[in-house]
Design goal:
mainly alpha, 2 domains
């Protein structure tokens, strides 16, 4: 018989062959001395491996030595973990602030435009708001006066009073969007710096 059963001897010993293939290998071993000798060698090798003692389990001292060689990450204090959490949610806070600011500016612009269209609405408003619409900037003028910048406060008040309230809405919108974009890019820059610091090799 020209075909040998060497390829199926391992599975034959383990009993993993199909019944027809198992019967064929058994019949082949009866007539093939080479395959029969190879089967005896495999059986002896398996018996020797089963009799050999298992490798010893690493002792506690060895495990402790490996544990000491592992890099230890120092535990961060509570305040640092809080800052880390705030830093992670900063983009969402910036986005929420941007949406809220846009809604406020849109509502303010719509309200001021409506007041300009309603007859007698501006005359019924207080002078500080009806004339300039910038009464909300009065605390800034007061602050400039307190710190001794009276001339700047007067000049700013005169310039603001000469401009209609609705014309400031687009300017405030641009300023607000610019601040939001600046805050987001600052966060991206800090994220990039953290990535570079984390990837730098330890000295």
């Amino acid at each position: 018989m020209s075909e040998h059963a060497s390829a199926w001897l391992d599975a034959y010993i383990d009993g993993e062959l199909q019944p027809d293939r198992m019967e064929w290998v058994a019949e082949h071993l009866d007539v093939c001395a080479a395959c029969s000798a190879e089967l005896d060698q495999l059986s002896a090798l398996r018996a020797l491996l089963q009799e050999s003692p298992a490798p010893p389990i690493p002792s506690e001292r060895f495990a402790a030595r490996i544990q000491r060689r592992l890099p230890v990450r120092p535990e961060q204090p509570a305040w640092q973990r809080a800052l880390e959490a705030i830093w992670r949610v900063a983009p969402l806070a910036v986005l929420a602030t941007g949406v809220f600011g846009q809604v406020v500016l849109w509502v303010s612009g719509a309200a001021l435009a409506t007041l300009h269209l309603v007859p007698g609405a501006r005359s019924a408003m207080p002078v500080s708001l009806g004339s300039t619409g910038l009464g909300w900037l009065r605390p800034l003028s007061t602050l400039l006066t307190i710190v001794g910048l009276d001339e700047i406060a007067d000049a700013a008040g005169g310039a603001l009073g000469a401009v209609a309230a609705w014309s400031w809405i687009p300017l405030m919108n641009l300023l607000f969007v610019g601040l939001i974009v600046l805050a987001y890019w600052s966060w991206l820059a800090s994220w990039w710096a953290r990535q570079q610091h984390a990837g730098a090799p330890a000295s």
